[in-house]
Write a structure and sequence with these properties.
The chain is mainly β. The protein has a single domain (about 10-85), classed as Jelly Rolls (Sandwich), CATH 2.60.120. It contains no helices and 9 strands. The strands form 3 sheets. A 4-stranded antiparallel beta sheet has the order 1-8-3-6, with no helix packed on it. A 3-stranded antiparallel beta sheet has the order 5-4-7, with no helix packed on it. The protein is globular and about 35 Å long.
Length: about 90
């Protein structure tokens, strides 16, 4: 992590089995979801899209969102939260 970002973001690596994912939720800050391996169906507000390995989704603050592993194998993803503290409201 660059020194300019140190302490200003939170990196959250995650792994999900096929069909798994969190409930609909929101954060009071921007989140960027980066798919490392597999594929995810990511819902951001009213938009749903398929994100493959190497792809990203940018989620604006206070926007309801969720993802589900839409592939047959493991999903590996890194979520970058624009806050040093993790704050989530499940909807």
């Amino acid at each position: 992590m660059s020194s300019s970002a140190k302490g200003k973001v939170r990196l959250s690596p995650l792994t999900a089995k096929p069909g798994q994912g969190p409930p609909l939720h929101k954060h009071p800050y921007v989140e960027v979801a980066f798919v490392i391996e597999g594929s995810a169906r990511i819902t951001v507000g009213d938009e749903e899209r398929e994100v493959q390995a190497g792809g990203i989704a940018v989620i604006p603050p206070n926007t309801p969102h969720r993802f589900v592993n839409s592939g047959d194998g493991i999903l590996r993803q890194i979520d970058i939260h624009a806050s040093p503290n993790f704050i989530q409201t499940d909807l």
